Amino acid sequence: MLAATAAHDATAGKKRRKPRRHQRERWCLRGLFCLSRSVGILARAWEQTCQGGRNQGPIPRKFLWTYDGAPRRDVP
Hints:
Number of helices: 2
Largest sheet: none
Helix content: 55-70%
Oligomer: single chain
Radius of gyration: 29 Å
Distance between the termini: 98 Å
Order of helices and strands: HH
């Protein structure tokens, strides 16, 4: 009985490592999530482009900047 207790005490303080397979699966799921989000963003931008007008973003139109530089000139 003492031998079993000593063996249990030796492994009691150590953390068990997850197998590498789970880490790989987590990495693949994160990549799949990012890819699906980016495809959704591109699809929405394409939709807005086909509708005409401007691509609407999170900034209201009244807060957009204006150009205060030199006026347009003809290019020879």
